[in-house]
Amino acid sequence: MKEERKNFGSKLGVIMAAAGSAVGLGNVWRFPTEVGRNGGAAFILVYLLCVLLIGAPLMLSEFVVGRSTHANPIKAYSKLAPGSWWRVVGVEGVVVAFLILSFYVIVSGWTLYYTVQSFAGALMESRDYKAFFSDFTGDAWMPVLYGIMLMLLVHVVIVRGVQNGIEKFSKVMMPLLLAIIMVLAACSFRLPGFGQGMAYLLKPDFSKITTDVLLSAMGQAFFSLSLAMGCLCAYASYFDSGTRLQRTVFSVSVIDTLVAVMSGFIIFPAVFSVQGLQPNEGAGLVFITLPSVFNMVFGGAPFLGYLFSGMFYMLLLLAALTSAMSLHEPVTAYLHESFGLTRHKAATLVSLSCMSLGVVCSLSCGIWSGYTIFGLTFFDFLDFLTAKIIMPVGGLLICIFVGWVLDRKLVRDEVTNGGKAHTCLFPIYMFLIRYVVPIAICVIFFNELLR
Ligand code: PHE
């Protein structure tokens, strides 16, 4: 028998679930890394513009497609443009979500390991954090084991369904995450590098804005807002007719941006508190630089060190969990709705196959690092293929579809809830989605490809 398709049960549930998807490793890990690499405050300004002018209109477009059809992404595009090839956009979303989940779950497993090691004290006791990181990620078993534990957690939530699983879980995890981030930000006031960290984050040096900074900011906005991966389209298919799409976009973008900036408030004062460390360490910032910072700052009071670092990695873990759930959902919903599998069977199939691919990703960081595709390890290749190729193309197709192909009346009815939610921003949204967003995406895409 076909199970009933349940919507989210409350407005708060909608916002917490969508914000849970957006707030992830991208905010706490990738954002500070990009800020560090691209010169601080100037990057943040450009990023804010990208969220406003590109990210938010694209998110609204995904909401329109999902809510108007109440179906998984592939079915949604087929329903809106029957018999055409636009279905490909839905296929792209589901495939990318699947591929990203397979390595996202491995990196999320790292955060689980770091949380456990922090509370257990082993992280503070180590001295060589480069070795600590590479010994763990290079090991054949441990990262896979942690990846499996993480996938199990995600699986249990997904099997329970949208209202009883994703919504309930997000409503507990997101407030907890916000509470942790506030406590950590408040603690960073007391760090000796606080003033220097704040200046780095808040005083823009406009000479630092180059085209490269612009492009990085746009890519970051895409990733951080979970765009073009079918996730938000799938979530929107569970919104009821009273959900105000524009308000939801606004709340999710504000929460996502606040968490990213607050993560900067935690990380940069910490980095500047230790002489000789620089904020532009790249991807090792969170897993290599920060543990040494915690060690040096809290060396005299190890208990505080366990607590501070444990809470920090738990923050990262919670953020990763809710995002991983949103990557799982479009794939599960597709198998469930289009192949008639029960939700339980569909979810099990997704978890098992994603984990198998995840094992390859994990091994490619260690014993299989010698096997490469176009000179990249399998892990890096998947990251490159999804983030730099498939995602921008998907984003471009979404805005062309909603801006130029979909009936304008349908779009207006969705955005205004059939005229009930009056908005004067509709013409601006249409202008952005028809001209500004596609042109901007083309610029990023070709620039990245031609580099
Ligand atoms: N937005 C998430 C983050 O910031 C990543 C993500 C991308 C999640 C796409 C779901 C879909 O980490």
Structure description:
- Helix content is 76%, strand content 0%.
- It has helices at 11-22, 25-37, 41-69, 73-80, 87-120, 122-125, 129-138, 142-159, 162-188, 194-202, 211-224, 231-236, 245-272, 289-297, 302-339, 343-363, 378-405, 408-415, 426-450.
- The protein is mainly α and 451 residues long.
- The model has no long low-confidence stretch (mean pLDDT 89).
- Helix 3 crosses helix 17 and helix 8 (142-159) packs antiparallel against helix 16 (343-363).
- The chain has 19 helices and no strands.
- The site of phenylalanine has 14 residues, from helix 1, helix 2, helix 11 and helix 15.
Helix percent reads over 70%
Overall pLDDT score: 89
In total, the number of strands is 0
Number of helices: 19
The biggest beta sheet reads: none
DSSP strand content: under 5%
How big is the Rg? 21 Å
**Overall spatial form:** globular
By secondary-structure content and strand pairing, the structural class works out as mainly alpha
The small molecules bound here are:
phenylalanine
Q: Strand-and-helix sequence, N→C?
A: HHHHHHHHHHHHHHHHHHH
- Low-pLDDT segments, ≥5 res: none
- What gap, in angstroms, lies between the N and C termini? 52 Å
